[in-house]
UniProtKB/TrEMBL annotation:
PROSITE patterns: PROKAR_LIPOPROTEIN. Residues 1-18 form the signal peptide. InterPro entries: HmuY. This is HmuY protein. Keywords: Signal. It comes from Pedobacter caeni.
Length: 278
């Protein structure tokens, strides 16, 4: 009987020692330290302008096909706060739109549920946000510059006044929330199988035959974008240019990607863009 008790106590002591040893050897993972955020510049509903916001200026397309993303790092932006958000906050509700892909030309809203059958995820996967994005194609404005049969502008550059007209024509959020795109992104117009887009990519330089400096140029179209923010508010956006300084007629010598856009944010849940404080 004594031997049996000794064996039991030895077993208990041995297990306790093993557990203690394991707990001592386990190194707890350090808490993730997030970088500081830049100051908030937008505190009220109103219209704001973003000029020469750098995209990923280090990535290059040399030797890569157009089907990839070019390894361009995303740019996360908060329309609510008017600031760039570091990539470490990708799975949070701190940002509203992300510019990803080649030359940061794919535009996503922040929706943390986006995961595709192939395992790929959206840029905000895991965030609590349930944002969305919607492209407004104003047929009356399109009729002034766009060739529907060829899916391209009739001529470039496109008058900036038309971009402002398309933007100003959006008086209210034009669709219900279920019409917003959340499981995907806005991209170039009829390029690589896409449909209507917010910008035209002159891949072959067809708009300027014989001028190699005008091939591979992006021209932003007069099409406004509606964003449902991570907080559930609404904004309208017009992108003017992907080139530094927003040149009227960019060439291959123009520096890119630099994001230039204007937006109106409604921070009170309203859908009426005619009623803002600025």
């Amino acid at each position: 009987m004594m031997n049996s008790r000794l064996k039991i106590w030895a077993l208990i002591f041995g297990c306790s020692f093993a557990l203690l040893s394991c707990s001592k050897n386990e190194t707890p993972e350090p808490e993730k330290v997030l970088p500081p955020l830049s100051p908030v510049t937008v505190t009220a509903s109103g219209e704001y302008t973003v000029t020469n916001l750098p995209g990923d200026l280090t990535a290059k397309m040399e030797g890569q096909g157009m089907e990839g993303n070019g390894n361009f790092k995303p740019v996360y932006y908060s329309l609510e706060d008017g600031r760039v958000i570091p990539a470490e906050y990708a799975n949070t509700d701190k940002w509203d739109i992300a510019f990803t892909g080649i030359y940061n030309s794919s535009i996503w809203a922040n929706d943390g549920t986006v995961k595709f059958e192939n395992g790929n995820t959206g840029p905000g996967y895991g965030s609590p946000a349930r944002g969305g994005i919607y492209l407004v194609v104003d047929k009356a404005v399109d009729a002034k510059y766009y060739d529907e049969a060829k899916h391209q502008p009739r001529q470039v550059p496109i008058d900036k006044a038309l971009l402002d007209e398309a933007y100003q024509n959006v008086k209210t959020v034009p669709v219900a929330d279920d019409q917003f795109l959340s499981r995907g992104f806005l991209t170039l117009d009829y390029f690589l199988g896409s449909g209507s887009g917010y910008a035209f990519y002159d891949f072959y330089g067809a708009m300027f035959p014989g001028d190699k400096s005008r091939a591979h140029i992006v021209y932003n179209l007069p099409r406004a974008i509606i964003v449902k923010t991570a907080k559930g508010n609404y904004a309208k956006v017009i992108l003017y240019s992907f080139y530094k300084g927003s040149p009227l007629s960019p060439t291959l010598a123009s520096e890119a990607p630099y994001l230039n856009f204007k937006y109106t944010i409604l921070k009170d849940g309203s859908k009426d863009f005619t009623k803002t404080s600025k």
